[in-house]
Amino acid sequence: MTRRTIMLAAAVAGAAVLSAQLPASASATAPLRLRGGLTLEIPASWRVYGTADRVRVVTGACARPGGGFFQPRCDSFWVMGPAALKNGGEGGVRYNPVNGPFFPAGDVPPCPVNPRYGHVIGKAIAVGHRDIGAGHRAHYRVWPGRCVTYNGGEQKSTFKQREWYLPTSKTLVIDKWATPGLDRILKNAVWAR
Q1: Is 49 left (phi over 0), alpha (psi -120 to 50) or beta?
Q2: Which of 18, 77, 166, 187 sits in a 20 to 30 Å window from 132, CA-based?
């Protein structure tokens, strides 16, 4: 069987890049080792960017995978750690899921699907808990997003920002793209002992 090397950025102490030998088949998966001993088994076709407390997992088309959190047109999800959460609330305040979504901006950032529009986030429409691996319960929220014109605020499209927050490890998973299978991947996560 042919094999290929996939480079995964690991958001662990030192934020080293680790190499995993994977089968070339389309159904291959790769372990993504994150902070706090969290490991996600992700499709090998997904690409990982970033280091330490800001990891972007690109799951499909992406114009600029190395772009920041508000980079539009990038099918992906994020895993953020304590440093990113320090000013991850709207206006640069500390992130707290009770107070609002992860939104490190003081103005209107570009819409995820079309940068010609801005985006705003409303009040959470789902609040609860979800398991991320055995014995780790995350605060779960779904925030409705609207893409609006910069002049007049006319709504052009919508999206949902899903968030899983683990307060003990201060780890936040953010998904604006309804990433297929992400719920299952998180539920089946493994934690180092």
Answers
A1: beta
A2: 18
The sign of the dihedral angle between the CA atoms of 91, 95, 98, 103 is: positive
Asked whether the beta carbons of 120 and 105 are under 8 A apart, the reply is no
Query: Residue 189, exposed/middle/buried by CB under 10 A (0-12, 13-18, 19+)?
Result: buried
Q: State the pairing for strand pair 190-191/47-51.
A: unpaired
What's the pLDDT score for residue 27? 66
pLDDT of 22 higher than 90: no
* Integer CA distances (angstroms), 6 to 14, 40, 47, 75, 116, in order: 19, 15, 8, 19, 34
Rounded average pLDDT over 140-148: 97
Q: Do the Cβ atoms of 188 and 170 come closer than 8 Å? A: no
> What span, in angstroms and rounded, lies between the C-alpha atoms of 116 and 158?
14
For 155, counting Cβ atoms within 10 Å of its Cβ (0-12 exposed, 13-18 middle, 19+ buried), the class is exposed
Instruction: Write the CB contacts of 60 (distance below 8 Å, at least 6 apart in sequence).
Output: 75, 76, 177
**Rg of the chain over all Cα atoms, to the nearest angstrom:** 17
What does the block give as tokens for 128?
Answer: 């609860």
Structure tokens given for 26: 């389309």
